[in-house]
Structures are given as structure tokens and as C-alpha cells.
What we know:
- It contains 6 helices and 9 strands, in the order βαββαβαβββββααα.
- It has 2 domains: 6-105, FAD/NAD(P)-binding domain; 117-182, no CATH class.
- The relative contact order is 0.17.
- Helix 4 (129-148) packs antiparallel against helix 5 (152-158).
- The protein has helices at 15-23, 46-50, 63-66, 129-148, 152-158, 168-182, and strands at 6-11, 29-35, 39-41, 60-62, 73-77, 80-84, 89-92, 97-99, 102-105.
Amino acid sequence: MNESSHHVVVVGAGFGGLEFTRALDGAPVRITMIDKRNHHLFQPLLYQVATTALATSEVAWPIRHLLRKRKDVTTLLATVSGVDRAGKRVLLDDGNAVAYDTLLLATGARHAYFGHDEWEPFAPGLKTLEDATTIRRRILLAFEQAERETDPTRRQALLTLAIVGGGPTGVELAGTIVELAHD
């Protein structure tokens, strides 16, 4: 692919960004995929990382590995700080910019605290590997502390976990924690 061909920039290597890139296979374009992480994450299984059922490497794969056969795709590890629509450039936090002819923003979702961001230190979301390992650490430390606790009231407090959210992830997380506690 030469430098004069149509340049598509995809911001985000999640499901949307990768599927869009896959759909362009064979198109007469060159693609630059930009993501702030060097891996694609299969978020639906993060609850299993949080509850020790899976290792982080089982739900995250290097973007470059996933796109290794695509000579039309360049991947960049970078954080996007903005878009210059008039200049058709994606702005990066290191001061560089990437020009585009077509831009796809597929940056994914973020958990929300509904105006109560002060809750975040006590209730981590579950959108990243770091979130999952933080939750796993908290669960396992609570179990370890409960194992040594002689006061039944304190032990019960250590074994009482609250999950905010009753969607698929919250339900799966709750069920898996119960299984973990019984095992």
C-alpha cells in the first residue's frame, strides 16, 4: 500500500475497532490503528479474571499479533488527546499527530458513578485488566483475613461483599464469588 492511498485511522482496538478493520480487509486503503493499550481485551470474561478462574493472558491478546497478517495495517501504541477535524488529524498526547482521510472513533465504554466519583476507590469498575486484578486482590485478601479472624462478627463482615450492578457481569461475578467461597 503506498502513501497516497486512502488512509483510515481507527482509534480503539476493542470489538468495534477490530471488526471495522477486519471488514476493510482487501479494500484499497491503508489503516492505522491507535490504542492506548497494546492488547485487545475480551471484556465479557473479566469477571473470571477477577475471581481467579482465568489468567489475564487468557482474555487479552496483543493487537499486533491479532493483525500480524494484515500488511495494510499499522498499529500505534498511543493516547489520543483530541481530533483536529479541520486539519483531519488525530492528536496524540506526546505532541504528534496522525493525518487521516477517514476516522473511526471506537473508544469503548467507561463505567460511571452517576455523579459520585468519590465512590470509585471503594467500588472499582470492571472494564480493564487492572480493574479485574484489583477486584481479585480485594476478594482474596478478604478471604485470607477471614480465615484468621476469630471474631464471628468480624469474619462475617470480611466475607460480605457488595456488587453494584445486576447486569450479566454483576450476576456472573456474584455467582462465581459464591462458588469461590464454597470451594
